[in-house]
């Protein structure tokens, strides 16, 4: 188990295959991060919307109690 | 007893609450595995004597391809369970699995395509496996399109479950046909490096990554299903309470 | 509700604690109705009360309901085949092919029911004598509905489920249809229908769906008020 | 009061549905020729778009004819249950006391008679236009006959799934096309192999097996899909 | 026919010797009607009399008619543009997109008419308060018709042409709609409508299409009798 | 009582129609991707049916991509006025006091944005899959952009003519396809010429001229056709 490249620049260049390898990894990790983050964001949006609705419902309730 | 458990599994609330403690474990494990394997594969695994460094793409390409295929079966089987036992939860799993699977298929296609350029000198080749993967991608797209096309949720669930089942019956047929078609034409192009030739020093990071991807898939599927559960049960008391408590904590 | 329990027999059709929801909004619940031979029931309620939803559930088109529907003492999913042979449903859509003539359209239905009356007679009975061979796209709105209504003459079914059968029908037609319903009731059949018009049928029983909405719903403005956020079963 | 011997009802339902659908098809005479004309024009576009050279066309002929036949079948699928749904006949069909398996079979059979069969019969003419070698004609006929029948059956499932959707046409293509690929592969290969002088027993046998499988399974799946579509 | 010629002014809408035929069968002919501001006319006649055909001709959708339609003293083909801006037609089909919400549907119509009232108010006025953002495919038959009827509130047109506007509407809705028509008449508008129900509008004038059928036709059974082989104008 | 300055009404009608149609398209998200997916799948069928060999595919690429783009546009045409007709909106549109030329233009524009444009943008990817030589990509984009716009416009006339027919889809293809042939010929030839190293100014100029002509004439013809279709 040893670092296979002479230098960091070498590591990035990968004997000319760098662009291919790094592009693949970049795309893959972008997708993985999207997969992970999107449900979290969706949940956040959902909670926000739900809280808004709860407030609305409460406002409605107190209003209708007043009129009755 | 077993049946009781099975039916409780059908309860979204039970599922939601039971899986909450799993999430941090799954997240930690999957991130650890994937990062380890990526570093290992990119920096420490030896270069392939024929393909040089470009082969390092294998560490994401193959796990993505595995999960893409497995994901279809997971989706179809949950659809079948939902249809047969008339449970809600499996439909939510099925619905969440479709975009994940499609994206993983996409990843495997794109990484494979990028890999092709330095190895075959071309972006695309009508190889049997590649072609099958493309068709799998279409099957996923069909699932997603059908799901979104319906406005009534119940109908969307059941209809896409039927499609997933039909697709599942067809996948082996499609694979065999494409394989046969490809051997018929005997393309003179390079074959994939055969499995046996892969050196253990290259194999271990791959295995690590495959396991990492499986755990990651489970995590993401869970997260998506949980959001779906919340959306569908948004009128129930328990979700309301859950929202209130998060609201107070925030 | 006053039940007309004339005999201790099993009701031909029975709804037990029936409830329907659409998109998780409960339309009505706890509906209990027993229908004995001879009964005619008009389902009432304002627009959007759930009448069509109820009739579709009764006819077996939709299975989105809670509670039980029993046909001649058997729960429906089991007796579905017998029920299908003994019931006739006419919905908002007439189920008539515009490309075919009235006679050709009815042939398919006649093949199912095996009634004795000829198609020509059935068409004449709904005032379409002479239109047997006119393609249906050339018919007016009311004439098209009449073709669908001709099925009532062609059927041997005891249970009729009619969703707004009087739509687009002229006055004479309405009174003829009322007579037909009365006749079906006299023959020992059961008729369930919706309509926003007042009918002049002596045997008529009303079931108002508004009575089966949850308590909170009714406090709101009756007409077309959306009850979101409540009335969901937990 | 009612006489409904099961066997009579089964067959009766099949025949009644079959006759009704044929009648409707016959009433819309212009529509009858539609898949055919699409097939004809789509194949004609190829020489215009690609190349009018005989050698090139001969090479392409089996594949192009098959692909375009597939598309023609596909595009005619949309109407399979659509009009029944729109005018309420489908609801009536589903609550009728007849065996729905046979009703669906009758519809699919009419669809094939109206689209797959004419396309099959026209294919040799198009083969001629694309300079298909002489050995290809019989295999073309045989493979298309078997293949279009399978495609009608498989397509019925897709048509049933999308029946309640507006503009379902292209969605239907998306759903159904991947399922058609095995049929296309074996069909086109039968013609190609025959042109190159090979034996095509295997390909035809596989196409036959597909058809048998489709006859058993497809109507059941379509029926389930129809019930689901109308439930909403 | 008794014409209410209250002033010597030009009628807002005038039908002169109007006749319609479908497939070379004459439905009615010699129809002369003058409509002054404030008039409400109910077109009567049994199913198939030609009511829809007449209204479509009036609205400018069909041009298959004989005789003249005059708007504010001008013959129609010439004044078509002004007429289009001053008239509102509601047919058997509601003209509502099921994929859109009621509010989105009405936006398009509001952009045309430039009325002052807001869409929300118009929807509330037809009892759809709270349904602004529900997609229309989730509405019941009556609710869908109500969305179409909301256009009456959104329009500044003086001439309303309504083909069976009461279809699928519940009782409360019917009386509200009648009030709306009375109001339009009071504002100096003109309403032409068909319906098989009896309306309780004081200003109502009836025009029965049967009176304008050719003599031989009337000797046959009135209801839905096909007059084939005769009644063709030579 | 009413304020209807003609200019405001013209533009207002265009914008209102445009927004409404875009909204409907956005509401049916799945349908948005349909022409695209059809295009993708139909092109994929070719290697399966014909041959996966690179040399063969490169030869076919320009023609096949163009033919399939044409078919994808064609198949998405059916919905252009259909749903408006079905729900009565079309009647309302025709009797509305707005300039109908712009209303039709708005509809066509939305159609192109939703079908022609995405197909054009996807075409290079498919070119890649069919091993299209590198010189072909820009001409492919340019010719498809011009060509699909003309096709949307011409297709609108066909869609208007067939709107009152049930299952108009295939009849529509029949009417419209012959009109598309000049577009196809010049479009495919532009790509082919470019691949062979020739100049393609002439082809693009002709496509541009078609487009200009279509913008002026097609909406008027479509309008007339709509009036005729709804008159019956
Ligand atoms: C778009 C292009 C490609 C696609 C869609 C694709 C697809 C796949 C799939 C589905 C698998 C999993 C196979 C299995 O589970 O047995 C796989 C494995 C593999 N692919 Fe690719 N591939 C592509 C291009 C490439 C290229 C260009 C290379 C290298 C030259 C490559 C090398 C491999 C290797 C080495 C494996 C693992 C070997 C094995 O498991 O047998 N792939 N690929
Ligand atoms: N498209 C058509 N082609 C030929 N004849 C038609 C067509 N549409 C209607 N008709 C005929 O014209 C006559 C009048 O039809 P119309 O729709 O105007 O009647 P209506 O008075 O509106 O009836 P209803 O009360 O049923 O709505 C009918 O006899 C019908 O058969
Ligand atoms: N496809 C649907 N999805 C969701 N909700 C729906 C759907 N169809 C109807 N609804 C809702 O269900 C309720 C009942 O509808 P239904 O058609 O049963 O009413 P109805 O009593 O028949 O009314 P009408 O008198 O107008 O015909 C309505 O409020 C409507 O908004
Ligand atoms: Mg209803
Ligand atoms: Mg009418």
From TrEMBL, chain A:
Keyword Oxidoreductase among UniProt keywords: no
Transmembrane spans: 20-41
Predominant localisation class: membrane
Cellular location(s): Cell inner membrane
Biological function: Required for the export of heme to the periplasm for the biogenesis of c-type cytochromes.
Protein's name according to its UniProt entry: Heme exporter protein D
Membrane topology: Single-pass membrane protein
Keyword list, A-Z: Cell inner membrane, Cell membrane, Cytochrome c-type biogenesis, Membrane, Transmembrane, Transmembrane helix, Transport
Name of one Pfam family that matches: CcmD
Family: Belongs to the CcmD/CycX/HelD family.
Species whose genome carries this gene: Cellvibrio fibrivorans
Domain of life: Bacteria
Signal peptide: none
From TrEMBL, chain B:
Membrane topology: Multi-pass membrane protein
Kinase keyword on record: no
Main location: membrane
Keywords attached to this entry: Cell inner membrane, Cell membrane, Cytochrome c-type biogenesis, Membrane, Transmembrane, Transmembrane helix, Transport
Record domain Cytochrome c assembly protein: where: 27-185
Pfam families to which the protein is assigned, alphabetical: Cytochrom_C_asm
Residue intervals passing through the bilayer: 21-45, 57-85, 97-116, 128-146, 158-175, 202-223
Location in the cell: Cell inner membrane; Membrane
Family per similarity comment: Belongs to the CcmC/CycZ/HelC family.
Function: Required for the export of heme to the periplasm for the biogenesis of c-type cytochromes.
Official protein name in the record: Heme exporter protein C
Organism taxonomic ancestry: Bacteria, Pseudomonadati, Pseudomonadota, Gammaproteobacteria, Cellvibrionales
UniProtKB/TrEMBL annotation, chains D, F:
Keywords: Cell inner membrane, Cell membrane, Cytochrome c-type biogenesis, Membrane, Transmembrane, Transmembrane helix, Transport
Keyword Nucleotide-binding: no
Physiological role: Required for the export of heme to the periplasm for the biogenesis of c-type cytochromes.
Protein's cellular compartments: Cell inner membrane
Transmembrane segments: 32-50, 56-77, 109-134, 140-163, 170-192, 204-226
Recorded superkingdom: Bacteria
Protein name per Swiss-Prot or TrEMBL: Heme exporter protein B
Xref: InterPro entries: Cyt_c_biogenesis_CcmB, Cyt_c_CcmB_bac
Native source species: Cellvibrio fibrivorans
Membrane-protein topology: Multi-pass membrane protein
Family named by the database record: Belongs to the CcmB/CycW/HelB family.
NCBIfam families assigned: ccmB (TIGR01190)
